[in-house]
Design brief:
The complex is a heterodimer. By secondary structure, chain A is an all-alpha fold. Helices cover 82% and strands 0% of the residues of chain A. In chain A, helix 4 runs parallel beside helix 7, helix 6 packs across helix 9 and helix 10 packs antiparallel against helix 11. In chain A, 32% of the residues are buried. Helices cover 36% and strands 25% of the residues of chain B. In chain B, the strands form two sheets. A six-stranded mixed β-sheet of chain B has the order 5-6-7-3-8-9, with helices on both faces. A three-stranded antiparallel β-sheet of chain B has the order 2-1-4, with helices on one face. Chain B has a domain of 166 residues: 3-Layer(aba) Sandwich (Rossmann fold). The longest helix of chain B has 27 residues. The chains are: A mainly alpha, B alpha/beta.
Amino acid sequence: MSTAVQRRETSAPTGEPAPPPWYATDLAARLSSYVFGLLLWIVLAMAFERVPGPDEVVVRLVQEFQLGQVFGHFGTTMFRFGLGLLVAAVGGIAIGVLMGLSPISRAFFESPVLVGLSIPAIIWAFLTVMWFGFGWKAPVTTVALSALPFVAVNVAKGVLGVSRDLRDMSRAYGVSRARRIRELVLPAVTGYIIAGVRFAVIIGWNAVLLSEWFGATDGVGFRSRYWYDANRFGGFAAWVVLFVVFIVILDRVILERASRRAFRWRDES
Amino acid sequence: MARLTVDDLCKTFPGSGGRPPNRVLDNVSFDMQGQVFVSLVGPSGCGKSTLLNIVSGVETYTSGQLDLTNDEGRPARLGYVFQDPRLLPWRTVVQNMLYVQDDNSSQTRDRALRYLDMVGLANNTDYFPTQLSGGMQQRVGIARAFSVEPDLLLMDEPFSHLDAITARGLRENLQEIWIESRKTVLFVTHDVMEAVQLSDRIIMLQPGGRIFDDITIDLPRPRHQSDPKVATMQAEVLGRLESMTGVNDDVSQAAPTGGAP
C-alpha cells in the first residue's frame, strides 16, 4: 500500500506546486501522533494511581536490563516466536498455494482453515499446555496453529488472482508446473504472502505471550506475569513497552523493506 | 516443422442464463504442413481466436478431429504470440525469454539472445517489461515465440493493439525473421492487408465459424505494401471478404443460426 503512495510521489511531474510546509507532511503527522500518545499516557498516570507513568516504566526497564533479565527472556521468546512463525509461514504458503491451484484441495482445506481462523490463540495456549506441559513446545505450537490459517487464506486469495492470461501463456508453452509455481505464482502472490505474514506476526506474538503466561517458566510472557503477580504495574508495563517497540521495529523495518524489495520491478518503472 | 490436420471441427459454448448455446466453429476442415505461413482471416467473432486456442490446447473442442504432429510424428512444440505481450512483469526481458525454454543451457540462452537481437532488443535484455514501450514488449513476445524453436507458431492478432507505425515496423521485422527461419505459422488477423503481405495462404472464416474461402497468395518475398502486385492482391482478397459479409447477411436473414455473438 505504502509503495503505491511513494511511487506517486516520485513520479510527480516537476512542474508541480512546492512541497507542503513541514507541519503538513506525513512525518509531522506521525510524530505528533507519538507525542499525543505520550501526553495522554502522562495525563492518565497523573489522574489514576494505578496507571504507572512513563518515568516509572523507564526506571523499571533500566532495572530489568541491570538485573540481566531482558536478553535471556527475550531471546527465549524470540526463538519460540520465530520457530512457530516459520512453521506457520511454510505450512500456510503450501496450503494456500494448493487451495488456489486446485478446487479439490480448496474443498478439502476450506473448512479446517475456517475453523482454525475462528479458534482464538488462548484456546490453543490452554490445549497445548495440557498436551505438552511447560516448555518450548506449547508456545511454538500455539504460534504455528494460530497464525497458519491467516497465511493460508491470504495466499489462497492471491493465487486465485494470478492473471489468467499469464497462466494460459504458460500452458501454451508447456512450462512445467514447478517452474510455473516458482516464477509465476509465487512472485504474483508475494504481496499476499507479506500481508499474511504481517497478520501472522501480530497473531503469533499474541499467541506466544499468552502461552508463556500460562505455560512457561521463562520468556517475555512469563516475566510479565511475574510482575503482574507481584502487583508491580511498573515492571509489567516495562515489558509491554518492550514488546510494542519490538513489533513496531519488526513491521516497519524488516517487513516493510522486504515488501519494497519484492516490488522492485514495480518501482523501477 | 509441423503438420496440422483439422477435420470437421466444431466448437459450441454452452448457453448460460437462458441463452442458447453459441456455436463458434462449424465443421472447419483444413490442413497445413511445412514451411508455410497461413492466415485465418474474418470479422471479429468468427471463431478465429477460439480455433487458435484449440490448436494450442488451452481450449477444448466439441466434435471433430484435430491432429498436430512434428516431422518425427511426435507432439509439436508450440510458440504463441498473443494480442498483448503477456510477459511476467517481475522478470526481466531475458528472464522472460528463458521462462518458456525447456532447459537452462548456454545454447538456449544464446538462442534467446539471438532472437532478441533480431527484433532489435539486444540492448534491453535486463529491462523489466514495465520499462519498455508497448511495441517493444510485443517484440519480446515475438522473439520469445521464435526462440523455443517451435514446430508450429501461433499468432493471434499480434499487431492489433499497436499504433499503425509501430505495427508496420513489427510486420516488416516479422517478415524478415520468417524468411530466415521458415517456421510453420498459423496467423490470426482481421486485417486483410497484413494477411496478404505475410501469408502463403489465407483461410477466410465467416461469422458462425464456417470456412468461406481458401486463397493461395503466390507472390515473391519480401513483400511491401507499396508493391503494386501486393496492392492488387489485397484488393482482390478484400473483394472476396466483402462478398462474404454480403452472403452472410442473406444467410442470416433466411435462417438465423444463432451463431454470431
